[in-house]
Design brief:
It is a single chain. This protein is mainly β. Strands 14, 15, 16, 17, 18, 19, 20, 21, 22, 24, 25 and 26 form a 12-stranded mixed sheet that branches. Strands 1, 3, 4, 5, 6, 7, 8, 10, 11 and 12 form a 10-stranded mixed sheet that branches. Strands 29, 31, 34, 35, 36, 38 and 40 form a 7-stranded mixed sheet that branches.
Length: about 550
């Protein structure tokens, strides 16, 4: 008896290769509400596929999964799907044997027709169908399926885009007699709930303009580097492209100042995905046309990479350290063509190249007392004193490192484990809020290591003046030098900036001799007595 059931089951599954024609009724034109489930049902996920023309193009793929829930013992499933082939088309199918939700997971099976062949057949001038089946094979010693599980995955593609203001729809229609279960006893079970899917492509007008930009949009050559002869690259790209445009070609002219920059035709490289291109260079412009993309442009789309060479850089002095010459990278006569909406407006985002006047001097970091003196003199009886740390002309600085060195037997900081920084109102830290001490700043015996950087997003301004004050304490009588050593200064591009330090001599002396007030009073009394006695003697002699 068991062998006869196996033969019946195998033969029944193979019958699906003989396709029959079922013409969908007029009810296929709109979604059908399924009847209430009677313990067995097949449904689609997603049940409703809604796409929009501003993000969908012809040929775009989407998947539909078919699921079964049943209290029957099932040995196989056949699914026949009808659809409007002028709206969507089926491209392939998958037996999801890798998925633990598959109804025959970890069992040997037969899949007909063999994936990816979707069993396609045209029914009439408007509809086609796909017929696929999965079953236990060979069935002996394999438990039939009961419960909820994944049957198959069908891949569809968008076949048509609606005209402006219209929609295109199609049922993914499985509620037909060619969708059935093969039960473990060899019988076909057809009378159960079969929930159709529904596809809709809605017209949604794409925006009529996109951005064309230079990236990066700001190129800087700092005062501390020699810019002439240096090369740099910029990329011309589109932002905000959506695949629904089906973009076919782009044309742009990039204008620059040829007194500062130069480029040539060989310095212009076309990016993917453009197969066809035309490049021309004039005295102050780069003219590019690209077309025929190998894939549908979407998102940020690269057009071309352009290499420029710097021709000119002025000097500071005589110019101000923060002065620069600028070349805009502007777009002219730029447009794009879309197969869907025709000509597109390109909103341009220009770039800029700044070439700062080359600095020929040396930055100085100096120490001094708030009241300038050749030698800083302090007293043991008034131990606390301040030393200014000042910097000469700087601009566009990323990092300043230095060490303050002193004799820890003569002076020290208020606490040996930390230093105390004072920020007067006229300090650069208060004038410019973008400066900060780095966490790597530290103190050792006789050494203070300091690192000053701009805060994230801030720039070290063009500045000259007081950075901060360091609080010191007198310890013993003597003389020491407070030196600035181990200086490094780098600009925002990592270039080393010439810098030199200075030192200040500090002398610690007692303020007064160590004499008590009583001793002073006794001394004064003795002097008064001596003076009185002398005066009296002089009077006696006169008499």
């Amino acid at each position: 008896m068991k062998k006869s059931l196996i033969l019946i089951l195998t033969t029944s599954i193979l019958i699906i290769s003989t396709f029959t024609t079922i013409t969908p009724s007029t009810t296929l034109k709109s979604p059908i509400k399924p009847a209430a489930a009677n313990g067995t049902k097949i449904w689609t996920t997603p049940s409703n596929i809604t796409l929009y023309t501003n993000e969908t193009i012809a040929g775009q793929k989407f998947n539909v999964s078919f699921w079964l829930t049943t209290d029957k013992e099932v040995g196989g499933v056949q699914i026949t799907t009808f659809f409007k082939h002028d709206v969507i088309n089926i491209t392939r199918w998958f037996e999801p044997s890798w998925n633990s939700s598959y109804l025959f997971y970890n069992k040997t099976t037969s899949a007909l027709p063999l994936p990816p062949n979707p069993g396609y057949r045209q029914v009439n001038s408007t509809h086609s169908k796909s017929k696929i089946a999965v079953s236990l094979f060979p069935p002996p010693d394999q438990e039939p399926f009961t419960g909820t599980g994944l049957i198959a995955i069908l891949e569809f593609e968008v076949n048509a885009i609606p005209e402006e203001g219209n929609n295109l729809t199609s049922l993914i229609y499985i509620n037909n007699s060619e969708t059935y279960l093969m039960l473990a006893d060899g019988s076909q079970f057809r009378n159960f709930t079969k929930m159709n899917g529904y596809y809709k492509l809605c017209w949604n007008s794409p925006p009529q303009s996109i951005a064309i930009e230079v990236y990066p949009n700001l190129i800087k050559f700092t005062p501390y580097e020699s810019a002439v002869g240096q090369k740099f690259n910029v990329t011309v790209r589109l932002k905000g492209v959506i695949s629904a445009y089906d973009l076919q070609s782009v044309n742009f002219s990039l204008i620059y100042d040829n007194a500062l920059l130069s480029t040539k035709q060989s310095d212009v490289k076309i990016c993917e995905p453009w197969q066809n291109s035309k490049v021309e260079t004039a005295e102050n412009s780069v003219n590019v046309t690209v077309s025929n993309p190998t894939s549908t442009p979407n998102g940020t789309v690269l057009l071309a990479n352009v290499t420029f060479t710097v021709k000119y850089q002025d000097s500071a002095p005589p110019r101000h350290l923060s002065d620069y010459d600028s070349s805009k990278l502007n777009f002219e006569e730029s447009y794009a063509y879309s197969n869907v909406v025709g000509s597109l407006n390109l909103t341009s985002v220009a770039g800029e190249v700044r070439i700062y006047a080359r600095y020929n001097g040396t930055v100085k970091l100096s120490l001094s007392e708030p009241i300038p003196l050749d030698t800083i003199i302090h007293y043991l009886d008034s131990p606390s004193f301040l030393i200014n740390v000042s910097i000469s002309e700087v601009f566009d600085i990323k990092e300043l490192n230095f060490t303050v060195k002193f004799d820890p037997n003569i002076v020290t900081t208020p606490n040996q484990t930390y230093y105390q920084i004072i920020l007067p109102e006229d300090s650069l830290f208060n004038i410019y809020s973008g400066l900060a001490f780095d966490s790597s700043s530290a103190i050792e015996k006789g050494l203070i290591h300091l690192r000053v950087t701009p805060l994230p997003g801030a720039e070290f301004p063009h500045a000259s003046g007081l950075l901060f004050q360091i609080n010191f304490t007198s310890l013993n009588k003597g003389t020491t030098y407070v030196n600035v050593t181990d200086l490094t200064l780098r600009d925002t591009k990592g270039n080393s900036v010439p810098i030199e330090g200075s030192s200040s001599q500090v002398e610690i002396i007692p303020e007064f001799p160590n004499i008590s007030i009583i001793a002073v009073l006794i001394t004064l009394s003795s002097m008064v007595a001596i003076m009185t006695k002398t005066k009296n003697k002089m009077k006696d002699k006169i008499k």
